[in-house]
Amino acid sequence: MLRRFLLLASACVLAACQSAPPPAPAPRPAPTRPVEQAPLPPAAIEHPASFRELPNWETAPIELPLSAFKRSCVKLKDRSAGDYLASVAPWAGYVAEWLPACNLVDDAVDDESARQILESLFTPVEIIDPAGKSRFTGYFEPLYEARYTPTPPFTEPVPALPTDLVPNGASPKQRLRNGGTRPYPARADITTNGVSAIAYAHPADVFFLQIQGSGRLRFPDGRTVRAAYAAHNGHPFKSTANWLMETGRITPGEASMQGIRAWMDRAGPIETRLAMNQNPRFVFFRALPEGDPNLGPEGAQGVPLTPLSSMAVDTDIHPLGVPMYVQTTAPGLGGDWAGMLIAQDTGGAIKGAVRGDLYFGTGVEAGERAGTMNAPGRLWVFLPKGVAERLEQTDIAALGFQAGSP
């Protein structure tokens, strides 16, 4: 999924952050032995903390994050109880150790009862980056005007998944007429040869939609559909914003979605196409019903994102579906902020143990708020009490990690 509209170096204009839901894991038999020692994540980790140590825990909103956690639990209950929550994070325990929490959170009737249930089930464990690094950014779901047929200025196809694309992990192939295959072409070749469309929109909007990875399309008849990520062409993401700055076409202060779109309007279609082609990655979409308008697109866990309750994390370190608690600051959050979030998404620029990208919601206002966010902070993971106790008993020094404050 890092993202949006300051100087988008930590945002999707400057870093690829599409997320595609992973396939559901195949059930596997339960293990024949319990976890004896859970390896720690590739970061230093503090000893388990008290909920009372969490900033603003007594007043933090719980209802929406808890509803997001319940949606993650639906995915969890479909898995084998003997699976690790995530193979990259055995420190987070087995699925079976999380199911009691999933079963009990339905008993919450208000913020206070939810807080008591969470305190009875979980222990907060702070994650500390060994180098003291931390960064929290924001992202959102764009909403763009669209048409069913090309009508100026809505002339750019919102590309549908092509029939000649052969899935091949991160390197999809193109099926040729003679039955052979080759690496899928880059953006310039795709746009020259043409694509099928799920709709038509302004060229700049389609470009940013591809960077964002998903969005909503609104038609003049009032219908709204989701443009959901379907696949990409396998080429690396390259920053058009960086190219525009390096060639003197824009200044660093213009390297935002709004600034780049303003440049495109001034530059005209030929220069605009040249700029867009500097990014060879090309994203395809599928049209889905809007569904609940209060929820966002599906994240990497395959559940809809919840505004200011879902967060993208580094899935090389953290498991999806885990409740977390973040303390950070941003104008779009009203200044200093602390709250509970659920790890439900990921992104290409989300790298690090104390790195998160908060989902702000849909539309212009959400985008403006998300664009103000780029600050350090603190991160706690909520672990079932038994899992946290096992971590506390682990010899951190013997594993080569260093606990302590950054």
From TrEMBL:
Enzyme Commission identifier(s): 4.2.2.n1
UniProt signal peptide: 1-15
Enzyme class of the recorded protein, top EC level: lyase
Keywords: Cell wall biogenesis/degradation, Lyase, Signal
A GO cellular-component term linked to this record: outer membrane
Highest taxon of source: Bacteria
Span of domain Lytic transglycosylase MltA: 143-286
Catalysed reactions, semicolon-separated: Exolytic cleavage of the (1->4)-beta-glycosidic linkage between N-acetylmuramic acid (MurNAc) and N-acetylglucosamine (GlcNAc) residues in peptidoglycan, from either the reducing or the non-reducing ends of the peptidoglycan chains, with concomitant formation of a 1,6-anhydrobond in the MurNAc residue
Originating organism: Hyphomonas atlantica
One record GO biological process: cell wall organization
Protein name: peptidoglycan lytic exotransglycosylase
Coiled coil: none
One term of GO molecular function: hydrolase activity, hydrolyzing O-glycosyl compounds
Region (Disordered): 165-187
